[in-house]
Amino acid sequence: MKKPLLFVSAFAGILFASCGSDDSSSAVTSVEKYISSVQTMNTDDDVNMLNVTYNAAGQVTSVSDGENTNDLSYSGGNLTTISGDSDPFQISELYQNPYDGYEFGEVLDYDNNGNPIKLRLFERDEETNEIIEEFEGFITYDNKPNPFWYTLQAAGIIDVLENVELNFSSVPQAEELIMAKQLLFKNNPKSFVLKHLNGTVASQVNATFVYGTDGYATSGTFTSSNEDGETSSGSINFNYLP
Question: What are 219's strand-pairing partners?
């Protein structure tokens, strides 16, 4: 079963081309909170842990899941290099896309906050690489902030994405960065529904979060199911710097 999780990475390893969202990259809250660790657990009791460390200036210096670590370096306050074998904030299964196992086509629509709410996705044959079927994905959000926004800002990633040009006639840039800018969400996603083009549901995920008085998620549970009757569930816990 493809298990769609709700926690979209800013650096997902997929390629797509589309029209861009609002170029204004601003948070939906002025309350700044920075993640120190995130823990997830799935139906099989597999636990994934993400730990984030900061320097005295409040910049993210490393992101680790215990097996893979990324180190971030800065010059003049700007992110200059990221070392490591994998993308930061996409280590292990913690940041699988909600459409894991499908290829991105494009973002079809955004809400008023600039969150992607409708996607075009494809499934390919693993042997022939031919497209088997096209799908549409629909994402809904709680009216709460993306828990990772200010952490991404402290890592210099928001600034990097603000400088990404979405006009494909401009100087070529890393497709992952173009994708990341278009998929960057400002609110916290609570559901994802994957549909066949005839409108029937292929799979879906629903999440319920607990929020603190500052509006940030402290924990959550999610359930996923597909048209074959397979189901799974999991949980997530967020810890922030004091």
Answer: 210, 237
Q: Cβ contacts of residue 120 below 8 Å, gap of 6+? A: 104, 105, 106, 107, 108, 134, 135, 136, 137
**Hey, what long-range contacts does 226-235 have (CB within 8 A, 24 or more apart)?**
226/1, 226/2, 226/202, 227/200, 227/201, 227/202, 227/203, 228/1, 230/1, 232/1, 232/3, 232/42, 232/43, 233/42, 233/43, 234/5, 234/40, 234/41, 234/42, 234/43, 235/40, 235/41
Residue 51: predicted pLDDT: 92
Label residue 167 by pLDDT band (50, 70, 90): very low
Fold of 35-240: Porin (2.40.160)
Q: What is the pLDDT of residues 49-96, one digit of tens each?
A: 889 999 999 999 998 888 888 888 998 888 888 887 665 555 333 334
- Euclidean distance between CA atoms 61 and 52, whole angstroms: 8
User: What is the rounded radius of gyration, in angstroms, for the C-alpha atoms of the chain?
Assistant: 17
